[in-house]
From TrEMBL:
Residues 6-119 form the Response regulatory domain. This is Response regulatory domain-containing protein. It comes from the Bacteria. Gene3D superfamilies: HPT domain (1.20.120.160). The modification 4-aspartylphosphate is found at D56. SUPFAM superfamilies: CheY-like, Histidine-containing phosphotransfer domain, HPT domain.
Length: 239
């Protein structure tokens, strides 16, 4: 017997809801639906135990990426997500985003692939994914350990300095300077493929009100400290 899964389908298309219900008749799935991302957020707040989300590419008002960013940063929830999309727009999507992407109409084979994706994602979450990836540095340096360690040391020292400058700018109510600093350090976090920090930097730069920057800067600093703690476990020579 398959494991019971609690799924939230986010779509305004009734045919998607009907089709998924028919295809999942042999699976022990509890399927609920929301017509838009705001309604979905409220459902998730009320029931944070969903195993995964299925999101229509055309959902609004928040895009699928914005929705997952909100869940991660504001509710501290990281759930596997499946993106369903029309075939003609599939090629425009970035498959490196945190989705398993399938084309409409959903098929029986898609359901089997979704099950595999959710199982794998759940295992990764249990293991506790690192807050960084060295893939970019390994590719850039042909896996040169000395280069990687030197780059990590530069990351540690330069971002530490910039975060102190950010803290001081916020203290002095110099919010334009704070936004410029966040813009400046964003590539450093992108180098380590930390999407949480990337989004925090973007929020500080472009979205946050002045009075919101202090809390976002603190979140950014905490995530930086978490990255450094984990890096030191893998690279004891990092000082």
């Amino acid at each position: 017997m398959s494991k019971q899964l609690h799924i939230l389908l986010i779509t305004s298309n009734q045919s998607d809801i009907d089709r998924l219900s028919v295809l999942c008749v042999n699976y022990d799935w509890i399927i609920e639906s929301s017509k838009n991302s705001f309604q979905a957020i409220q459902k998730i707040k009320d029931t944070p135990s969903y195993n995964f989300l299925i999101i229509d590419h055309e959902v609004g008002p928040l895009t699928s990426i914005q929705l997952l960013d909100y869940l991660s940063m504001e509710l501290n929830l990281n759930m596997p997500a499946v993106l369903i999309t029309e075939k003609e727009v599939h090629g425009d999507l970035n498959n490196e985003e945190p989705f398993f992407i399938i084309n409409k109409p959903i098929t029986e084979k898609d359901i089997m692939n979704i099950v595999s994706f959710v199982n794998e994602s759940s295992e990764n979450l249990k293991k506790g994914a690192k807050p960084y990836s060295l893939n970019y540095l390994k590719q850039l340096s042909d896996n040169n350990t000395a280069f990687i360690l030197e780059s990590l040391q530069i990351f540690k020292d330069s971002v530490y300095t910039k975060l102190n400058e950010l803290k001081q700018a916020v203290k002095n109510l110099e919010f334009k300077t704070a936004r410029e600093i966040a813009h400046n350090i964003k590539p450093s976090f992108e180098m380590l493929e930390n999407d949480h920090c990337r989004v925090l930097c973007d929020k500080i730069c472009y979205q946050a009100k002045d009075e919101e920057i202090s809390a976002l800067a603190e979140k950014l600093n905490q995530e930086y400290l978490n990255i450094i703690d984990e890096l030191k476990k893998e690279f004891p020579k990092l000082n």
